[in-house]
Amino acid sequence: MSQHMDNIPSTPGKFKSDKYHYIHRFRSHSSLAKLILWSLFFFSVICFFFLLSPTSPTSPPADRSRRVLANYTWGGPEWEKKVRQSARVRSDHGHTVLVTGGAGFVGSHVSAALKRRGDGVIGLDNFNNYYDPELKRHRRDLLERAGVFVVEGDINDSELLRKLFDVVAFTHVMHLAAQAGVRYAMQNPKSYVNSNIAGLVNLLEVCKSADPQPAIVWASSSSVYGLNSKVPFSEKDRTDRPASLYAATKKAGEAIAHTYNHIYGLSITGLRFFTVYGPWGRPDMAYFFFTRDILTGKPITIFEGPDHGSVARDFTYIDDIVKGCLASLDTAKKSTGTGGKKKGAAQFRIFNLGNTSPVDVSKLVSILEKLLKVKAKRRVLPMPRNGDVQYTHANISLAQRELGYKPTTDLESGLKKFVRWYITYQSKSKKKSSW
Ligand SMILES: O=C(O)[C@H]1O[C@H](OP(=O)(O)OP(=O)(O)OC[C@H]2O[C@@H](n3ccc(=O)[nH]c3=O)[C@H](O)[C@@H]2O)[C@H](O)[C@@H](O)[C@@H]1O
């Protein structure tokens, strides 16, 4: 067989003499050997750098210095059909809402609530690995069963956003996609700029050109109050002293939102969420990983302020936040622009959505100990200079007045629901049962 192969001219149709053939074979063998050697060399160099790289599949999932984004596929008649179906309104005067961050903690709860009452909903999520994407996929699976299609894609992808607006005339955008987390901003600052600033601008650009323009409700953060020491925090208080890059990007988002409202007539409502917690929550948040670590016997670190002062948060239960989000959508006025041009003044609002009763982090741990019936291995450390603030407390009178917002869940009742969910989720995950 090898003989047969050797007799075949290298260029079909051209005959070569034996001598030529011999020399050529010798040369080609030696160059083939060189080629193989060089290829092996380059291959080992590539392997070496690949193994060193933080995004290689061999690196531990705990390495969150970079987020991995999947390659998305979207478009096509089947995809458009799913988008249209999911966006179909099933109630009188229902909205058609694009929920960015649809597979996220708040996004999945808001999407489910909108769908339940008959609104049309499309989710959008990039499923990045800031925390376990498996949890996001499980949230998506639940939503899909409820009739909500979550498109896999990024808010920085203008083409995808324009396509979504071509297929569906969204009346509202609930913008919840963001790089969350206060302390992670020191590890991966660029991801905050990419999602919370570039992504927001990209989304607003598409919204401003959409016809009709949607009304936008989006997630700002209680962290914008930064070094503000006057409590409770009111929307009128200073927000020009952020303590973390995360807070700075959210504050920048509020300024950017104002610009798009002012120039293009987009109706925009910013919601300053106060440490939202609950079932299907975010594993990067303290209440979540404290629960995990208490149950597995790992020590937990509790931060304290100067002079052993306590650190406290106005923890707000997810169902209360969802009510605030829906009320914001329902009270949002229409945007006034068309074809990228403003036709008149448009609504611009900012609301605190908190619980109005701050709880010390050490008290949160005591509640978890009681609910889990396990003593925590506490390690108390001074609050590191990592962007955290010592205290948050929302004044919610504006949201109460304008949105009818009234939180009803205290921390203990909310954590009880979270713990119940957490234990069920863990056991289902171990058994790999369906959701
Ligand atoms: O409400 C907000 O604006 C913000 O709420 C949370 O941020 P944070 O309040 O810092 O929530 P956690 O990270 O869960 O921390 C809660 C409390 O636990 C404390 N903590 C955290 C981690 C730890 O190991 N030990 C500890 O005592 C923190 O100092 C903080 O006081 C979210 O992570 C942000 O995305 C959100 O924007």
Automatic annotation (TrEMBL):
Q: Which residues cross the membrane?
A: 35-52
Topology of this chain in the membrane: Multi-pass membrane protein
Q: Where is the NAD-dependent epimerase/dehydratase domain?
A: 97-334
Substrates-to-products reaction catalysed: UDP-alpha-D-glucuronate = UDP-alpha-D-galacturonate
What's the chief localization of this chain?
A: Golgi
Q: Which InterPro entries match?
A: Epimerase_deHydtase (IPR001509), NAD(P)-bd_dom_sf (IPR036291)
An example Gene Ontology molecular-function term: racemase and epimerase activity
Q: What is its EC number?
A: 5.1.3.6
Location in or out of the cell? Golgi apparatus, Golgi stack membrane
Q: Does the keyword Transcription apply?
A: no
Query: Kind of enzyme, top EC level?
Result: isomerase
Gene3D superfamilies xrefs: NAD(P)-binding Rossmann-like Domain
Any one of the GO CC terms: Golgi cisterna membrane
Q: Which Pfam families has this protein been placed in? A: Epimerase
Q: Which UniProt keywords apply?
A: Isomerase, Membrane, NAD, Transmembrane, Transmembrane helix
Q: How does it assemble?
A: Homodimer.
Q: Which family does it belong to?
A: Belongs to the NAD(P)-dependent epimerase/dehydratase family.
Name under which the protein is recorded: UDP-glucuronate 4-epimerase
Which lineage is the organism of this entry classified under, starting from the top rank? Eukaryota, Viridiplantae, Streptophyta, Embryophyta, Tracheophyta
Question: What gene does this protein come from?
Answer: GAE3_7
